[in-house]
Amino acid sequence: MLSLEKVFLTLGIESSCDDTSVALLAGPRRILSWKISSQIERHAAFGGVVPEYASRMHLEAILPLTQTVLEEAGVADPAKQIGLVAVTRGPGLMGSLLVGVMTAKAYAQAWNVPVLGVNHLEGHIYANVVDHEDLQFPFLCMVVSGGHTEIVLVRGCGEYEMLGATQDDAAGEAFDKVAKVLGLPYPGGPVIDRLAVAGDADAFSFPDMVHHLDGLNFSFSGLKTASINQVNRLRQKGETVPLEDFCASFQATVVKTLIVRLEQAVRLTGVTSVAISGGVAANSAFRRAVAEHEGWNPFLPSKMFCTDNAVMVAAAGYAAWQSGRRGGLGLAPDPALDFGEDEVVGE
Ligand code: KG4
Ligand code: ZN
């Protein structure tokens, strides 16, 4: 049995989008308890996240979740036992972030423990640190989610260099929007992933855009539009869309784009430790392509830590605290928080 007195405990809180999550972490990666309350089914009826509705659901969920996490972890006196409260302060939906940040500050004040804001992207990167004790700096991390497609060179905690980012849609957004046109439920990524298993990835060809952009940047809006146009053309001809083939071809184009950029990043930096994170990192074709790539030392977070969760936030907060970063009760949510404010010491 772990003696809670001897370890540093971090309470992590995540509420930036449509998942309310709370976690209690001992040291850098030992999970004592974590919970997630997903709103996906409630938003699915609207085909996407409804921000006002999301913040109301966060408000309902966050206190009972925290109580459950503390009870499950056996924390009877948080004021004495907890060392830090870490919370996602951005980027994300304003109302949703506000619920997490205000809750974190209230607990921090009530228990008289420090509070630290975490960048959601930094959280996704730290999902890999939780799952891989052997992950050493420097490593490359590709964050691919509903809101992000970025390649980051991680030199250390707080030392990040953004190598490339999407100039329009995120990869997950492209999955979701193409799924919507195909009549598939939200979120579309996991559904496309499942259908693609039985499909022929060469059945359709789509523009991949990788060679039309400078540096390591991404663009997915062209692929999204081309895919939607193909669906409409087939329907106008009275043909049904072969879902499996279409999904397999679309998914293969996204994966190819991501892999080409990672290959370029490895060449550019000489760093061969390649981590992935974010919701799209749960994609089976992408995981396979990274895991089996020749010459790379791959790090894949378990699927449950790819999508939004508080474990990664607690881990990022703990690492930041250990590296000397400090915050305070002046902490405020920032829906457009750049990966470059506060925590970035990189270039
Ligand atoms: O990281 P996340 O939970 O939230 C954001 O920060 O955006 O990522 C959600 C995104 C959605 O766009 C969803 O469709 C996508 O990740 N996603 C997937 C898969 N699982 C989730 N995309 C492709 N394949 C999957 N298996
Ligand atoms: Zn996320």
TrEMBL record:
Keywords from the UniProt entry: Acyltransferase, Cytoplasm, Iron, Metal-binding, Transferase, tRNA processing
Highest taxon, organism lineage: Bacteria
Family designation: Belongs to the KAE1 / TsaD family.
Name assigned to this protein: tRNA N6-adenosine threonylcarbamoyltransferase
Binding site residues for Fe cation: 120, 124, 308
Catalytic reactions on record: L-threonylcarbamoyladenylate + adenosine(37) in tRNA = N(6)-L-threonylcarbamoyladenosine(37) in tRNA + AMP + H(+)
Annotated PANTHER family: TRNA N6-ADENOSINE THREONYLCARBAMOYLTRANSFERASE, TRNA N6-ADENOSINE THREONYLCARBAMOYLTRANSFERASE, MITOCHONDRIAL
Organism this protein belongs to: Pyramidobacter piscolens W5455
Family matches, as InterPro entries: ATPase_NBD, Gcp-like_dom, KAE1/TsaD, Peptidase_M22_CS, TsaD
